[in-house]
Specification:
Elements (H helix, E strand, L loop, with lengths): L1 H13 L3 H14 L4 H13 L3 H14 L4 H13 L3 H14 L4 H13 L3 H14 L4 H13 L3 H14 L4 H13 L3 H14 L4 H13 L3 H14 L4 H11 L9 H11 L3 H7 L4 H11 L11 E4 L5 H6 L6 E5 L2 H10 L4 E4 L2 H6 L5 E6 L10 H10 E12 L10 E3 L5 E3 L1 H11 L2 E6 L2 E5 L2 E11 L2
Parallel strand pairs: 1-2, 1-4, 2-3, 4-5
Antiparallel strand pairs: 5-10, 6-7, 8-10, 9-10
Helix pairs in contact: 1-2, 2-3, 3-4, 3-5, 4-5, 5-6, 5-7, 6-7, 7-8, 8-9, 9-10, 9-11, 10-11, 11-12, 12-13, 13-14, 13-15, 14-15, 22-23
Length: 466
């Protein structure tokens, strides 16, 4: 019966009848609790049903039954990875490779687990191992090239990406990556060709269109950039992204803040890679805000009754703020970013809303409002700062970051930059705060993050409501 039930389980698994397959494998395990094949396959069907904790336990039992078998280690690594347990995933992939040094997918997924921990050099070594094992592994060559781009080793990245293109000539992703390399090497004509080739394959890819538009502008090909963006707008008249980009590079029709659609679309696309990308950029805004609260305000555990994380994103600031407050709310325009924040279980309540409208409806509610890397999507700060003032209790703290304007002020106090964010002058920010009724406690000029290896200077502001 054990053999019959196992074969029945396999057939049901192949037919994607997960529940019935689970029943069949459990019958095998009842008869033979040490059947590593049934335990391993049970883990797979449990995983397909979204039962990750149960799948992980089943894989562990399979490994206990036969520790020298590579496959359960590999499957356990994948389950840990899906569950966000990156160090455990790494360990499982390494154990799989100990049992089977030629396991290509284990080498590649080890690279992914290391990459997601921002251990780029180690990830590169793992990806290189995968392509050494299988020289025609497109994803391996692509990942080698991608990591080398992030490490700034463009001359090494180029042959890896070109090899991926040899193996998959119609890959939009690899043409895009080639464009990134060529742009970084200053080969703007070739980069333009690569980006346009990527768009030939995938005309709807917003990231590629953004990159081409910004590359043309940075290369001094202003007319070509404007023409490209106008064509994009003509094809997609309701798309906020090319309109915002066009304003950012021409200085014409600049809105007082980025539109809701622009912010929502940008961060919905970015949500899945947001935290990992910012780690690699040495992103510091949440920790800078925290340092002000701890060092300047001497905030201790549960010091605040209510805190608002304004533009909370995936919850990077909220995780740090939670011990300081008895209640914490978050607000953001991006539903996908909010979903990431919700998964952290640190917020009492999350709201999908535009910030100014949201705080305008709240009065004398918050002991502290923080906005880490949020107000750089506002040019004119008056409305949002005034509304924030009325939302706070007397004695409340308002701590936030801006990007620092590095060109001569034309009188407005802010400018929309080609990268799509606004930067502000210190004098303008101080004036807006004081006009709203705040008492400015401190303004400093820290490094917010690094882009292209260079520091991005910001303004870190702390103000009190009397």
């Amino acid at each position: 019966m054990e053999h019959l039930n196992f074969e029945r389980g396999k057939s049901l698994q192949q037919a994607e009848s997960w529940i019935e397959a689970e029943k069949a494998y459990r019958l095998v395990i009842e008869e033979n609790p040490k059947s590593f094949r049934a335990l391993n396959n049970l883990g797979t069907v449990l995983e397909q049903q979204g039962k990750l904790p149960d799948a992980i336990e089943s894989y562990k039992l399979a490994i206990h039954a036969k520790p020298t078998e590579a496959i359960p280690h590999y499957n356990l690594g994948n389950a840990y990875h899906r569950d966000g347990q990156l160090e455990a995933a790494e360990a499982s992939y390494r154990r799989c490779l100990e049992q089977n040094p030629d396991h290509v997918d284990a080498a590649f997924n080890l690279g992914r687990a290391l990459y997601d921990q921002t251990r780029l050099e180690e990830a590169l070594t793992a990806y290189q191992r995968a392509v050494a094992l299988d020289p025609e592994y497109v994803g391996g060559h692509s990942s080698v090239g991608g990591v080398l781009i992030e490490l700034g080793r463009l001359d090494e990245a180029e042959p890896a990406i070109r090899r991926a293109l040899e193996l998959d000539p119609n890959s939009s992703e690899e043409h895009f990556n080639l464009g990134r390399v060529l742009e970084g090497q200053g080969k703007m004509d070739d980069a333009s060709w690569a980006y346009r080739k990527a768009l030939d394959v995938n005309p709807e890819n917003t990231t590629t269109k953004e990159s081409l538009g910004r590359m043309l502008h940075s290369a001094g090909r202003q007319d070509e950039a404007v023409e490209f963006l106008n064509e994009w707008i003509k094809r997609e008249p309701d798309n906020a992204i090319p309109k915002h980009m066009l304003a950012s590079i021409t200085g014409e029709n600049v809105e007082s803040r980025a539109s809701d659609d622009y912010v929502r679309d940008t961060f919905d696309r970015f949500a899945d890679q947001f935290d990992e990308t910012l780690k690699r950029l040495e992103y510091r805004a949440p920790s800078l805000v925290m340092a002000v609260l701890v060092d300047d305000y001497k905030v201790q555990r549960n010091a605040f009754g209510s805190v608002l994380d304004a533009g909370c994103g995936t919850g990077l600031a909220g995780t740090l703020l939670r011990p300081m407050t008895r209640r914490m709310e978050g607000v953001d325009l991006s539903s996908k970013m909010l979903a990431k924040a919700q998964a952290l279980n640190v917020y009492d309540e999350l709201f999908e809303a535009e910030l100014t409208a949201f705080v305008s409806e709240r009065h004398d509610l918050y002991d502290c409002v923080v906005a880490a890397d949020t107000l750089c999507y506002f040019g004119d700060l008056e409305d949002v700062v005034n509304a924030t003032f009325q939302s706070m209790k007397p004695g409340g703290a308002f701590v936030f970051t801006l990007e620092r304007m590095n060109i001569e002020d034309d009188g407005r106090g802010y400018v929309l930059n080609p990268h799509g964010r606004y930067s502000h002058s210190e004098d303008y920010a101080r004036r807006v705060l004081e006009d709203a009724g705040f008492k400015v406690r401190a303004i400093t000029v820290p490094t917010l993050r690094r882009e292209a290896g260079l520091p991005v200077l910001g303004l870190l502001l702390a103000a009190d409501k009397p």
